[in-house]
TrEMBL record:
Protein name in the entry: ABC transporter domain-containing protein
Biased composition (Pro residues): 326-336, 406-442
Region (Disordered): 305-460
Family: Belongs to the ABC transporter superfamily.
Organism: Streptomyces daqingensis
Stretches assigned to the ABC transporter domain: 2-227
Amino acid sequence: MIEAYGLTKRYGAKTAVYNLSFQVRPGTVTGFLGPNGSGKSTTMRMILGLDDPTAGRVTIGGHPYRRLPNAPRQVGALLDAKAVHGGRSARSHLLSLAQLSGIPARRVDEVLDVVGLKQVARKRSKGFSLGMGQRLGIAAALLGDPQVLLFDEPVNGLDPEGILWVRNLMKQLASEGRTVFVSSHLMSEMALTAEHLIVIGRGQLMADTSVKQFIAQNSVGFARVRTPEGEPEQREKLQSAVKEAGGQVQQEEDGAMRVSGLPLPQISDLAHSADVRLWELSPHQASLEEAYMRLTQGAVDYRSSTDQRAGLQMQPAAQPGVPAGPQGPPPVPGAPGGPVGWGAPQPGAPLQGGPHAGAPGFGPAPAYGPAPGAVPGAAPGVPGEQPGPYGAAQAPAAGQVWHTPPQQPPAQQPPQPQPAQAPQPVPAAQPDSAPQPAPAARPEPSDDASRSDSSEDDAR
Ligand SMILES: Nc1ncnc2c1ncn2[C@@H]1O[C@H](COP(=O)(O)OP(=O)(O)OP(=O)(O)O)[C@@H](O)[C@H]1O
């Protein structure tokens, strides 16, 4: 289990991670999501002891990474697949890692087989494609047969077959009772791979919940309704009845209506009472991507000026000490004055009070409200009224964090975060700092296999 308490990281004036508290439990794949620059890699580096937190702490199995006995056999990680000496073969790279951790050489051949690199095991890695490099990074993570695994963008560059393989691998590792923490920007993939999600925006926790609840909490369910073509009066009658009953109607491009705010049976009854025939009445639920976009759109720092959603971004209300621009505090999606959600029932239509307002919807769960078990408010161990990193007091139950209560409460209270510091706005194009080496990157090997590298052919 990975446990973070009040984890904060500042780089000078830049607050990369602020007061993060979460647990990553064994037995499930936990997805780690957040827009570019939101602090995912920084968090992973702190988990792996590659960066020191400015405040707070993070442990693996109760110990900070650096105090874990024989950490490489307990924790495996893929952070930067490019952190490999290109002149070495895949096999000698892995052998060097194995030697340093007291892992038998036969395990190297096992993991090369597992990741599908057996055929190119003796080729120099500098000729590897992006996907082959990812596979080698995954092999390094698996080397110690660890109980805890962290993967930063593991499917980056993989072909569809490779993506499917990674998905199944993650699930299998979790089903074996391991802790699997994986970041990705591919929402469709996360929806298929992860059961639980931790979502951050601008370094702060935005959601800690199951995928199912996350979608329910951050999306609007709707019904597609179609009345007979060429009979506009039928459509108008139903539209009036739906609006009278409190539903919202949006026209779909293909002539159907998108009805939100009413359960399907009620729409059917309304149609029956109005003597309207239906050609279609079907339920629709937003995808993880839609739900994610809805939650995080206000926390996106880097956005194309041609992105239509740019115009939908919430302009945070002016608050003393809160800088405007990309460093502003994460807004609350759906909050009064907040953004019109992507995937919202209709542009300009009221959002039924936001994600926590519990508007009626179709189906068993409210279409746009807190799902059972979801606890809006602060994360465990996060004091309710901390000053935010942007100098503004944060409302404890303003819907910034959706959290599923942990099964085991943290044994210790988190340390108090340091006084808030308003970060300076940075130019949008500011690059990240120098890349950190992945934990897998190690010094030169001294084994036979590495000596034989010189006679190995280039892969390309
Ligand atoms: N060593 C560093 N020095 C200064 N700033 C840093 C450093 N490392 C990260 N940052 C900044 O911290 C913020 C978080 O970066 P991080 O790489 O953790 O985000 P991320 O969520 O992993 O982004 P992405 O999805 O694009 O990989 C960014 O604004 C980044 O520029």
